[in-house]
């Protein structure tokens, strides 16, 4: 199976502080990969290096075969990014926000209006597409963020805390959208979340970061066997995570 994301010995230092320490990671095309860790574990720094927004101190990284440091524009053409705090122009409509983003990304084909309507329809916002985003709820903004990701027809979607602040219905909608990106569109999804039950529900594999080091990566059932010694589905990702967190915190 071909890889969408691959890092070797990827490291990032800020003077004496190690943010990411010799990260070796492979994410297959089309899979949903949950990226876990407490605040300060190096997740955001890893996101930035994968997106070409921060230069590694050492090591290599490839996203869809491109080096984000040397070819950041090529990477940006094939990935979509939903940040933790989605930003839009609040005095503009959803339609106008997406049209502006499309033009920034060089999407100027004659079918742009139909393309925008299609992605708004996919996230359930077509009826509200002419409303100003300032009137949108948190859940609607998150769905508009997914529409922006879809607009680029990406090979990889990077999602940072995509369900943060959503109510139960909005959370379920978002999880369904994320699964649809992978299962229906073949998009690789690399996402972070502190909601471990949600990560367990949709992820093919997970990785756990502690103090800048990847301490575990693999299918959840495999990590359960390694860390909890169980073969049946009588475990939770939270139990696995806490076991690593308590026993395997690396020293700097």
Largest sheet: 6 strands, mixed
Q: What name does the CATH topology of the domain at 3-85 and 158-247 carry?
A: Rossmann fold
Mean pLDDT: 90
What is the percentage of strand-forming residues? 15-25%
Portion in helices: 25-40%
Count of separate DSSP helical elements: 9
Give the structural class. alpha/beta
Query: CATH class of the domain at 3-85 and 158-247, anyone?
Result: Alpha Beta
CATH superfamily descriptor of the domain at 3-85 and 158-247: P-loop containing nucleotide triphosphate hydrolases
Number of strands: 9
Radius of gyration: 19 Å
- Spatial strand order of the main sheet: 5-6-7-3-8-9
Low-confidence stretches: none
Write the element-wise H/E pattern from the N-terminal end onward.
EEEHEHEHHHEHEHEEHH
Name the overall outline: globular
């Amino acid at each position: 199976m071909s890889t969408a994301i691959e890092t070797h010995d990827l490291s990032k230092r800020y003077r004496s502080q190690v943010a990411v320490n010799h990260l070796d990671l492979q994410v297959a095309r089309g899979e949903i990969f949950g990226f876990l860790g407490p605040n300060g574990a190096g997740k955001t720094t890893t996101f930035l290096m994968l997106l070409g927004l921060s230069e590694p101190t050492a090591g290599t990284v490839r996203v869809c075969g491109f080096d984000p440091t040397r070819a950041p524009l090529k990477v940006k053409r094939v990935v979509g990014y939903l940040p933790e705090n989605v930003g839009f122009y609040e005095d503009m409509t959803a339609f106008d926000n997406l049209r502006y983003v499309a033009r920034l990304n060089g999407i100027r084909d004659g079918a742009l209006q139909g393309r925008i309507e299609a992605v708004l329809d996919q996230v359930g916002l077509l009826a509200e597409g002419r409303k100003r985003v300032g009137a949108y709820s948190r859940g609607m903004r998150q769905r508009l963020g997914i529409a922006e990701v879809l607009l680029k027809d990406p090979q990889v979607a990077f999602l940072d805390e995509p369900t943060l602040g959503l109510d139960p219905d909005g959370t379920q909608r978002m999880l369904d959208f994320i699964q649809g990106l992978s299962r229906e569109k073949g998009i690789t999804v690399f996402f972070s979340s502190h909601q471990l039950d949600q990560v367990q529900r949709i992820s093919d594999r997970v990785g756990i970061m502690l103090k800048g080091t990847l301490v575990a990566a693999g299918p959840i059932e495999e990590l359960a066997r390694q860390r909890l010694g169980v073969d049946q589905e009588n475990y939770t990702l939270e139990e696995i995570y806490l076991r690593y967190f308590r026993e395997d915190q690396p020293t700097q």
